[in-house]
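Hi team,

Below is the intake form for Large ribosomal subunit protein uL18 from Hydrogenobaculum sp.. Please confirm the fields before the structure is written into the shared record.

FORM ID: S-0412
PROTEIN: Large ribosomal subunit protein uL18
ORGANISM: Hydrogenobaculum sp.
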Amino acid sequence: MKLTREEKRIKRHRRIRKKISGTASRPRLCMYRSLNAFYASLVDDITGNAILTVSSLGKEYVDATGKRGGKSIEAVQKVAEILVQKAKEKGIDKAVFDRSGYLYHGKVKAFAEKCRELGLIN
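The structure came back. Fields below:
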């Protein structure tokens, strides 16, 4: 039986998660792409808590751009800027990037490069 695109992504994500883990001092930066929005979270895997979550549906994004639910590359980069700013406020200066099984291309690549440019990930 042939796997669907989402099943393939989940399979890749599980394989990646075996190797990547976040701590309180260096949390895991995971992301999710839906059809209408982009979500990013900093997660402490030891306690299982999300330290910080930002999305293109959130109040900070709407205040900064004036629109709700962007899914373009520019919207993803704005979400990255907001995430890095809030992380710095919480005292988090480094994170481990988890692409969540998505291919490193397009929006995922733009998000990672923006976070890297702003100094959150190596």
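SUMMARY LINE: Strands lie at 28-33, 38-44, 49-55, 96-98.

Thanks, M.
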